[in-house]
């Protein structure tokens, strides 16, 4: 049996990776199984932060480790919230965070934005797989699917916000879907 540690305690992420990897014969482990590790995510990019997380955990367990980092970059806001996406306006819910972003974007004509996802994998070497979903910031929130900034992000292929897409539609074009495809191709190619 092949074992993979997902360096996250986010149950939603663990569930998604289980759905992807268990049918391929992997046993998916998570941080709940090891002693608490303090991780200082002080990288400047999504890729650096994903690698920082994976390396900190690799020291604690003897199996392939995967960690990811993702977020939303908005051009007119100097790429904010960017690598701080999870911590942006900490303590507030996403209805509020999205409202504040739309207020800050009120007079902006450049509405370009992108979701980025970096997945780091450490076996005997280290690798980062990246996916990017380009889009624009909506004028009003719409949709209830997905999570986080999905209601304010318009996906051009569908001309809908990513919160108006089904999970399958979102995965077919999303940053996480693309990064995951690259990860799975790597695992297959190297027979890991
Ligand atoms: P992470 O757990 O450090 O990768 O945090 C990523 C953060 O970026 C999330 O908490 C969301 O705020 C945002 N984010 C990343 N991917 C998505 C997405 O697909 N939809 C909406 N928000 C996202």
Which helices and strands appear, and what pairs or packs with what?
Blueprint: E1 2-6, H1 11-21, E2 26-30, H2 46-58, E3 64-74, E4 80-81, H3 94-104, E5 112-122, E6 126-137, E7 153-155, E8 160-161, H4 167-173, H5 175-189
Helix pairs in contact: 4-5
Summarize the structure.
The chain is an alpha+beta fold. The chain has helices at 11-21, 46-58, 94-104, 167-173, 175-189; strands at 2-6, 26-30, 64-74, 80-81, 112-122, 126-137, 153-155, 160-161. It contains five helices and eight strands; from the N terminus they run βαβαββαββββαα.
Bound molecules: inosinic acid
What is the general shape? globular
Helix/strand structural class: alpha+beta
Number of helices: 5
Share of helical residues? 25-40%
What is the tally of beta strands?
A: 8
* Unreliable residue runs: none
Radius of gyration: 17 Å
Residue fraction in strands: 25-35%
* Helix-strand sequence: EHEHEEHEEEEHH
Features:
single chain, 192 residues, alpha+beta, 30% helix, 27% strand, binds inosinic acid
Notes on the structure:
This protein is α+β, with helices and mostly antiparallel strands. Helices cover 30% and strands 27% of the residues. It has five helices and eight strands; from the N terminus they run E-H-E-H-E-E-H-E-E-E-E-H-H. The chain has helices spanning 11-21, 46-58, 94-104, 167-173, 175-189; strands at residues 2-6, 26-30, 64-74, 80-81, 112-122, 126-137, 153-155, 160-161. Strands 1, 2, 3, 4, 5, 6, 7 and 8 form an eight-stranded mixed sheet that branches. A hairpin with a 4-residue loop joins strand 7 (153-155) and strand 8 (160-161). The longest helix is centred in the last third of the chain and has 15 residues, at 175-189. The protein binds inosinic acid. Inosinic acid (IMP) binds next to strand 3.
């Amino acid at each position: 049996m092949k074992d993979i540690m997902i360096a996250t305690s986010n149950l939603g992420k663990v569930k998604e990776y289980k759905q992807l990897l268990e049918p391929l014969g992997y046993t998916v482990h998570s941080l709940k199984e090891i002693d608490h590790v303090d991780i200082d995510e002080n990288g400047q990019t999504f890729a650096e932060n994903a690698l920082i997380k994976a390396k900190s955990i690799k020291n604690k367990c003897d199996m392939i480790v995967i960690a990811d980092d993702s977020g939303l970059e908005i051009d007119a806001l100097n790429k904010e919230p960017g690598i701080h996406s999870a911590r942006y306006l900490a303590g507030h819910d996403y209805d509020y965070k999205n409202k504040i972003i739309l207020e800050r974007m009120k007079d902006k004509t450049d509405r370009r934005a992108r979701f980025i996802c970096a997945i780091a994998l450490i076996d005997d070497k280290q690798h980062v797989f990246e996916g990017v979903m380009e889009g624009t910031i909506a004028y009003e929130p719409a949709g209830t699917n997905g999570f986080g900034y999905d209601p304010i992000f318009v996906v051009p292929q569908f001309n809908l916000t990513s919160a108006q897409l089904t999970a399958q539609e979102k995965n077919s074009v999303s940053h996480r879907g693309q990064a995951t495809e690259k990860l799975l191709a790597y695992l297959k190619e190297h027979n890991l």
